Amino acid sequence: MENSVYIVAGARSAIVPSGGLFKNLNYYDLAAPIIEDCLKKIGLPPNKVDELIVSNAIGGGGNPARLVALASGLPQSLAGLSIDRQCVGGLDSLLVGKALIHSGQAQVVIAGGTESHSLRPKRYYKSIGEKKYIHKNQAPFLPSFYNDPLMEVAAAELANQYNISKLEQHEWAIESHVKAMKAKDELSKEIVMIPEVPILHDPFTRSLTMETCQRSKVLSDSVSTASTSVAADGAAFVVLVSEKILNTLSINQALRIIDGKTSGGNPELPGLAPIAVSDFLLKKNHLSSLDLDVIELMEAFAAQAIVCAKELKLPKDRINLSGGSLSRGHPIGASGAVLAVRILNELKNDRKYGLATIAGAGGIATGILFENITFNNLFTKKKSKR
Question: What structural domains and CATH numbers belong to the chain?
Answer without folding.
Answer: 5-121+188-194+228-384 (3.40.47.10)
